[in-house]
Specification:
The chain is an alpha/beta fold. It has a single domain, classed as Aldolase class I (TIM Barrel). It has eight helices and eight strands. Strands 1-8-7-6-5-4-3-2 form an eight-stranded parallel beta sheet. Helix 5 runs parallel beside helix 6 and helix 6 packs parallel to helix 8. The longest helix has 15 residues. The chain is globular and about 40 Å long. The termini are close together. The chain binds D-xylitol-5-phosphate and zinc ion. D-xylitol-5-phosphate (DX5) binds next to strand 2, strand 8 and helix 7. It is an enzyme of class 5 (isomerase). Pfam families: Ribul_P_3_epim. One of its GO terms (biological process) is pentose-phosphate shunt.
């Protein structure tokens, strides 16, 4: 059993609700409903890297000012080399950009860390993971997308699990403390397989904000993940 800290959170498991599934005109109230989460996952989309558009730094700054939990920013944007540092500068606890979109991923991760944010890199379902194995120390978290990025409410893709398993194996073998995150279609019926494959950080949009009590949904996801966690 994993240790429980004084906030009731389970050590080693993180549940990050995605506000993409929240009511955008009631953002402050929506954020208050997920105060028991570890981070709030903030999806930035530019209608270029993905075929959908959300918001930019101005909105993220207001979320940062209002959120009871730290921000986990997921940038689904082109040219993160140009834009990602701005999100670190406004105080996001972690900033994750896509490997497919970055020109110099390691240099960018170093800049994010220098500003004071955790540095994350994300891979789409069809992107190979092996290229990251020698770069694990350059990142604080690696996001294995379990749907095609762009939209909430899609079905979890189990075919991404072998990739996550290989990554978890390499991270363990190399003694890395990198967090392994999954995002897309995570809910009560899918979180166990992601935890078994080695994920420790779970993004869930519809499964949390679609629940009548988001706090209960977070607790249930946390318990299931802890039960199946393999680290
Ligand atoms: C998808 C986003 C996800 C999305 C997850 O591109 O990156 O964070 O909000 O939503 P659910 O949990 O509903 O699949
Ligand atoms: Zn996301």
């Amino acid at each position: 059993m994993l240790p429980i800290d004084d906030t009731g959170r389970l050590g080693g498991i993180r549940i990050n609700p995605s506000i993409l599934a929240a009511d955008f005109v009631n953002m402050q109230a929506e954020l208050a409903r997920i105060a028991s989460a570890d981070f709030v996952h903030v999806d930035v989309m530019d209608n270029h890297f993905v075929p959908n558009l959300t918001f930019g730094p101005q909105m993220v700054e207001r979320i940062q000012a209002t959120s009871p939990v730290p921000l986990d920013v997921h940038l689904m944007i082109a040219d993160p080399d140009r834009w990602a540092p701005e999100y670190a500068e406004l105080g996001a606890a972690s900033v994750t950009f896509h490997l497919e979109a970055a020109t110099e991923p390691v240099a960018l991760a170093r800049r994010l860390r220098a500003i004071g944010s955790r540095a994350g890199v994300a891979v789409k379902p069809a992107t190979a993971i092996e290229g990251l194995f020698d770069l694990l120390d350059d990142f604080d978290q690696i996001l294995v997308m379990t749907v095609e990025p762009g939209f909430g409410g899609q079905s979890f893709m189990p075919e991404t699990m072998p990739k996550l398993r290989r990554l978890a194996y390499e991270a363990r073998r190399r003694g890395s403390s990198v967090w392994l995150q999954v995002d897309g279609g995570i809910g009560e019926s899918t979180i166990a397989q992601a935890a078994e494959a080695g994920a420790d950080t779970f993004v869930a949009g519809s499964a949390v904000f679609g629940a009548s009590d988001p706090g209960n949904a977070i607790a249930a996801l946390r318990a299931t993940a802890a039960q199946h966690h393999t680290h």
